[in-house]
Design goal:
This protein is α+β, with helices and mostly antiparallel strands. The protein has 2 domains: 41-98, no CATH class; 101-281, no CATH class. It is 20% helix and 44% strand. The chain contains 4 helices and 19 strands. The strands form 3 sheets. It has an 8-stranded mixed beta sheet, with helices on both faces. A 6-stranded antiparallel beta sheet has the order 1-2-6-5-4-3, with no helix packed on it. α2 (184-194) packs antiparallel against α3 (199-213). The longest helix has 25 residues, at 2-26. It is globular and about 70 Å long.
């Protein structure tokens, strides 16, 4: 009897296991789809475009494919779309808007032939985001021959007029220089002096930019002086005899690149001279 009960128990267990396996095979298999993560930014032709999280229906805009960014197809509007880029998604075209370029540390130096009152203002398609002394639709100062300035708004002395601004601009940097990070200081000394800056001015330029640039393996550097002067108007009254404006655009690199070397214009100071320097880093 015990032997029969044992056989029945074993048989029951086998049936339960078999039934359990059958139940497992009846469970429908579901595929877990990975959610696509779109980039926060697109860098295209040295400009930065940020994700706006806005989707445009496929038929709502006229776009053309211009290339790829880390596996994503990049589109641009056929007409007037330079400030926007798009990634095609199941929800429509994901919009990326161009970030503002920051015009860093333009310093303005004034060297009149005699002590006199000078008015300075700036005109450009952007906005001033910082200034010292405070920019109130311009500056009014008493300037001495040695460059010392007395701001008439607060009666304090300054060495130069400082401002920074945000601006949407794709600078033409097809020509430039490839410089090792360790050679940045000597390169800037040579080129800035050639373009007309005196030691006081180019030393202040180098002190500001060197900590940012020398840590890069290489820097691609372009001076967009003429383009900058055309786009960013500097108004000075009375009118100077000579205005020297130096604006550097650079990008840190890990590898060497092919480039066309830039030919710079040599500047000579004469009479009442105004000097301005500044720059922008391409991230």
């Amino acid at each position: 009897m015990k032997k029969i009960l044992k056989i029945i128990l074993i048989f029951t267990l086998l049936i339960n296991v078999s039934f359990s396996e059958d139940k497992k095979t009846d469970i429908p298999k579901t595929t877990i789809q990975k959610e696509v993560v779109y980039p926060d930014q697109i860098i295209w032709e040295y400009e930065i475009f940020s994700n706006t999280n806005e989707f445009y229906p496929i038929d709502s805009i006229n776009v053309k494919k211009i290339g790829e960014w880390f596996g994503f197809d990049i589109y641009e509007e056929v007409e007037g779309g330079y400030n926007s880029k798009f990634i095609k998604t199941d929800k429509g075209y994901l919009h990326y808007a161009k970030e503002d370029v920051i015009l860093k540390k333009p310093n303005i130096y004034l060297y009149p032939l005699k002590e006199e009152k000078i008015n300075v203002s700036i005109e450009f398609d952007g906005k001033i985001i910082a200034s010292y002394p405070k920019y109130n639709n311009g500056w009014s100062v008493i300037a001495k021959e040695n460059g010392e300035l007395k701001n008439l708004q607060d009666n304090r002395s300054y060495s130069y007029l400082f401002w920074e601004g945000s601006y949407k601009k794709n600078w033409d940097i097809k020509e430039g220089f490839l410089v090792k990070g360790t050679d940045t200081a000597s390169f800037l000394q040579e080129k800035l002096e050639y373009m007309g800056l005196i030691p006081k001015e180019y030393n202040e330029f180098i002190v500001y930019w060197l900590p940012i640039m020398e840590k890069n393996k290489y820097n691609y550097i372009s001076f967009v002086n003429e383009e900058y002067s055309k786009e960013i108007k500097l108004n000075v009254e009375p009118k100077p005899d000579k205005i020297i404006r130096v604006f550097m655009v650079f990008k840190g690199l890990n590898n060497e690149i092919k480039f066309n070397e830039q030919k710079l214009t040599k500047n000579e100071r004469k009479g009442f001279t105004v000097v301005e320097w500044g720059g922008s880093e391409i991230k």
